[in-house]
Design goal:
With about 375 residues, the chain is of the alpha/beta class. About 40% of the residues lie in helices and about 25% in strands.
């Protein structure tokens, strides 16, 4: 047996032990879920998990600590997902139909959740507020089209909701058609208006008629049901598989770096809030008096407390013509993040007309650390 075979045999033996230990651990998780069901405690206890990760990573030497930290994060996420399934708290809402980008984001962010479709973003928020869904997945910002203002307005109007996570999802749009169709035979392409706009150079170069549709996934479904080989849709590769279509051309959208940020929202009272920590993001909504220097003072206070401002957005204030509310997303500082966050909020409450913590959350590529 050579060195590689010996190493693989050792890994196989360790994996067998880990499988047995995993089973034992999940049996203990069942008891935890039963206790939480009886006491009404939330599934997610961030303070407990942060302490557990710190304690266990200290047991691992040097350069392996970062890898073990990620291993623990994944293990705890799987444990939470199983508890939610046992407790019937695993419903996640999204807008659209199967294969829509929000549905794809949900399957990556919440791979163990029971996905439930709703007609509008407002319906998603309603479901989370009412407790019909524990999470809602919403598009928040596109690298080409900018922020999804309607979603931000929904969050501003609903103080019961908090942001639990943000993740980025690369958006690649393909040209889909019925099996046996050819590009030369395509005459009309249906898709969401934005997807058509992003694919405009491709459509013009091939002389294809563009027809707007409600969303990309439903456009693909329409093509699948039409039986028309001269009709194509611009949608995702996942949608092609879902509706039995073939991919005629990959990546017809003009910008290969097209990326959308998605939010996972939850009820603010449904779980203990994630505490500020280095690298975590802090999202705030605030209003200031419509006077010179008021907004500049807020930005100054944020900088003095050591928070890096990733972005700031302004939106019209409801029922107050030509005044605005602001959204800021901040990166927590490396040192004394909880104390600095408390100090920042105290100073902002004195400087602003209103301040609301929208959420403290992790950011990561979609699918990397399931919730």
């Amino acid at each position: 047996m050579d060195q590689l075979e010996q190493a693989r045999a050792q890994i196989d033996a360790i994996d067998a032990q880990m499988a047995a230990l995993f089973t034992q651990r999940m049996q203990a998780v069942v008891q935890v879920a039963q206790y939480k069901a009886a006491t009404g405690k939330p599934v997610f206890d961030p303070a407990r998990e942060d302490a557990l990760i710190a304690k266990n990573t200290a047991r691992v030497p040097g350069e392996l600590r970062a890898y073990y930290r990620r291993f623990l994060q994944q293990s705890l996420a799987v444990s939470r997902a199983y508890q939610r399934r046992l407790l019937g708290r695993d419903v996640a809402a999204y807008q659209g139909v199967q294969g829509a980008w929000s549905h794809i984001a949900l399957t990556l962010l919440l791979p163990f959740a029971s996905a439930k479709a709703y007609a509008t973003w407002a319906d998603v928020c309603d479901a989370v507020e009412a407790g019909d869904a524990q999470y809602g997945v919403l598009p928040f910002e596109n690298s080409n089209a900018g922020d999804v203002s309607a979603v931000l307005d929904l969050l501003y109007a609903r103080p019961q909701l908090t942001v639990a996570r943000m993740a980025s999802l690369p958006i690649r749009q393909d040209l889909l058609a019925l099996p046996g169709a050819t590009l030369a035979g395509i005459r009309t392409v249906v898709s969401h208006q934005q997807a058509l706009a992003q694919s405009s150079p491709f459509l013009k170069s091939h002389g294809l008629e563009a027809r707007p549709w409600g969303n990309t996934a439903d456009a693909a479904r329409h093509v699948a049901e039409s039986g028309d080989k001269s009709l194509a849709a611009i949608a995702s590769a996942q949608t092609a598989e879902l509706y039995g279509l073939q991919i005629l051309v990959k990546g017809v959208n003009e910008d290969g770096d097209n990326t959308t940020r998605f939010l996972v929202v939850a009820r603010a009272d449904a779980a203990a809030p994630l505490p500020p920590a280095p690298g975590r993001r802090l999202a705030l909504l605030f209003t200031v008096d419509h006077k010179p220097g008021k907004l500049a003072n807020v930005i100054r206070l944020i900088g003095e407390q050591g928070f890096n401002m990733e972005n700031i957005k302004s939106r019209p204030l409801p029922h107050v013509p030509f005044e605005y509310y602001f959204y800021v997303q901040l990166v927590c500082p490396e040192e004394n993040a909880p104390a600095r966050c408390a100090a920042l909020l105290e100073s902002l409450e004195a400087a602003c007309r209103t301040v609301r913590m929208l959420g403290v959350f992790e950011t990561a590529p979609a699918g990397e650390v399931p919730m």
